[in-house]
Every structure is written in C-alpha cells, then in structure tokens.
Amino acid sequence: MSPGPGPGGTSDVVVVGGGAAGLSLAHRLVQTGAATVTVVEPPDGPGRPAERTWCYWDEGGGDFEEAVHATWPLLRVHGPDGSALTVDPAPSRYRMVRSAAFERLVHTRLARSPGGSLLRATADTVRDVPGGAEVRCTAPGGRTLVLRARRVFDSRPLPALPPSRTQLLQHFHGWFVRTDTGRFDPAIADLMDFRVPQPRHGLAFGYVLPLAPDRALVEYTEFSRAPLTTAAYEAALGHYARQVLGLDAFTVESAEQGVIPMTDARFPRRTGNAVFRIGTAGGATRPATGYTFAAVQRHSRAVAAALRDGNATVPPPHRRRALFMDAVLLRALDTGRIDGPAFFTDLFRRTPAHRLLRFLDGATSLREEWGIGLRTPVIPMLRTAVEVPFLPRRTHPAPRTGESPR
Fold first, then answer.
1. Residue 396: what pLDDT?
2. Coil vs helix vs strand at 58
3. Looking at the domain that runs over 9-52+97-161+266-308, which CATH code has it been given?
4. What distance in Å separates the CA atoms of residue 238 and residue 252, rounded to the nearest whole number?
C-alpha cells in the first residue's frame, strides 16, 4: 500500500480517521474517480480502537459484501409479555460486518488504486488554508507531516456533544458466546427482546445474533440517560443469558461494550471553508435507533456525487423530516409519555417489516410515514410534536462514546 505523501504532500481529499465513515467515503471517492484520497489512520497501538461490530439491513450486492460476517433473513421481537413476533423483511436481510474484515477489504482496494493512499499517523490539527485545508500529523517516529488538500473530511469524535433538547444514551454490553449444544437458530436475529427487567427511566432489551447453532453475539442494551458500571452490565447480561435465554453452559469468547448518543443535537457538518465532519461526528448516527453504518454508506455516495459535480457543499446524512420524527420519539421516551417496549413491539406488529425497515432508514414517503404514525400512540406523539419546536437546547454531560455497533 502506498505509504501516503510526505511533508507538503497534496491530494484532492484527506480523510481523517479510518473507521466505517472514513474508509467508506475514501472507497467511494476512489471507486467513482471523484477525487484522489489520502486516509490518515492512527498507528498500531492504544490509539486504535478495538474490533467493533456494525449491523445494518439491505437487499445485498453492496460494495462491502465480501466483509459481511453473517446475515439473517428473519427478524424477531419479544414483547414484555413474552410473546414472540417473527417477521420476514424480504428482500432485505439483516447483516453483520466486523471492523477488522471491513478495514482489510478497503485497505486492499485503496492499495490497488492509483488514486488512494493510507498514512499511519496521528492527526493533530485540521485547519483551512488558502485554496483548501491542511492536516498536521505526527508519524510513529515523531516526525511531523503536513498534508494539504482541496477538502478534508474529519471523522474523529467530537470533544463534546452539541446542545440538544433531548439526549438519551444507547449503552450496551455484549458477549460472543459458544454453547455446549446447538441453542440458536442461525436464520433469526432477535432484534429486541423485552423480557428483561425494565429500568425506572428509559427501556432495556436483549439482542441476539446467532452465528452458528452453538455461537452467537448476545447483548444487553439500555436506552437511558446514563451508562452502567461494567459489573452491572455483567449482571444484567448474565441474567438475560441464563434466566431468559436458558443458556446453562456456555463460554464467553470475547466481549464488547459501548455508548452511543441518541440526541436531537445539530451536528456541525462543516467546520471550515474546506473542512467537513462525517460519521457520528457529522450526525450520521440515527438519533432514535443508534444505527450508523447504512447511513454512512448513503452519505458517502451523496458526498462523492457532490464532489464529482463540483458542488462546494455536501448534503446532510439525514433528511430534516426524519430528524424531526426522531426528536419527537426521543422526547416521548424521555418524558415517559409512551411505553418504550410496547411502542417498538407494536411498530413491528402493525407495520409490514420491509416498510418499517425503510422507515427506520429514512427512506419512506410522507404518505407512508403518516400511515406508520397512525399506528403509534397518537395523542402522546401529537402532544410531543407540538412541544418539541419550543424546547430550549442545552448542554448535556458528555458520554463515554464509542463507534456505533449498529
């Protein structure tokens, strides 16, 4: 792979950060010929994040099919009363990508392209300069590198979240488990299992992604205002695995834990004339669900098209209408006006699965959204919709965030 430019090196675009957002955009720009790209990634060591899991749904045949670790044709939701609802979202499937495989795939593709390069260095500062932007980096040996480009796309986490009217956290702890006997159905992903004790504020659910009859990712997730201690997660997840799922004998092969902000904050998409934010830092995480990977793919395509067409600005990752609906739902959950487990269970029970997934991706029409809205608690949602535009935005405590696994 090209080691990237040295001091004073130039390219059309510099992408800061080699996670899902940065690598997806770099791949799209190089693939379409919209720009030459240098990706700045942290060198090996404590600065690099641990392996992550990203999930999404689509109809297949996408750019990163080779990196897909597992897929599920059916989705299941367990209501708080124990009832199970299995839905078929065909032609979509639920998909899992592991970050290590995704990174290897995109690195290989960038190496094969004359328009792409990778630089292992720590990005220190990003700023506008005449004619574009400049990124100052520190190489592993301590050498300072200066990269210049017409545009810089920065995916690094924000130091603090912008002010918002409502902020919840989606926080989770998961185990990759192996059982002594086959206990899982590899065709069905349990998207939300509400057969767990509910917190006083917010909601909680289990999440099971079978990888084989005897292997699965099992997670405990909460939507609430503050994360738990690791010990509390372990206790909640142990209860879910043993008492709810009935897993008597199993081995934990690895674990993952994270916090995803669910906020109606206005994220800064542009921080300079030639500097743009992407990924979670640019508002790509869907506020009401925490899903990011699919939005990153759509946004990468839109950014590449904008650059190819010579546009000075780039489009937002989500439509305003979708963000307003998310703001209403977050407020309704936070105030307790709606019962979270019942709300999500009823959404899956009353809405065709493929249409609901399109709605959660922000791809439905106004008419479809109106029909889905009529299947929710109308009076509490209308009351909240009227209230939200008049609520003040305020600063909330910064969570210990990580990249979305969703």
1. 78
2. strand
3. 3.50.50.60
4. 11
Q: How far apart are the C-alpha atoms of 199 and 116, rounded to whole Å?
A: 48
Q: In what order do the strands lie in the sheet with 53-58?
A: 53-58, 93-98, 68-72
Count of positions (residues) in the chain: 406
DSSP element (H, E) containing 179: strand 167-179
Per residue in 291-323, pLDDT (tens digit) is 999 999 999 999 999 999 988 888 999 999 999
Please tell me whether the overall predicted TM-score, pTM, comes out greater than 0.90 for this model: yes
| DSSP state letter for 243 | I
Look at residue 398 in the predicted model and tell me its pLDDT. Answer: 64
Pairing of strands 116-120, 203-212: unpaired
Residue 125, phi then psi, degrees to nearest 5: -140, 150
Nearest residue to 295 via CA among 17, 56, 19 = 56
Task: State the Cα–Cα distance between residues 61 and 365, nearest whole angstrom.
Answer: 24
* Segments making up each domain of the chain, as ranges: 9-52+97-161+266-308, 320-390
For residue 294, what is the enclosing H or E element?
Answer: helix 293-308
User: Could you give the residue ranges of the DSSP H alpha helices within 309-373?
Assistant: 320-335, 340-350, 353-360, 366-373
- The one-letter code for the residue type at 278 is I
For Cα atoms 246, 250, 254, give the angle at the middle one, nearest 5 degrees: 120
Element (H, E) at 75: strand 74-78
Q: Give phi and psi for 366, each to the nearest 5.
A: -60, -40
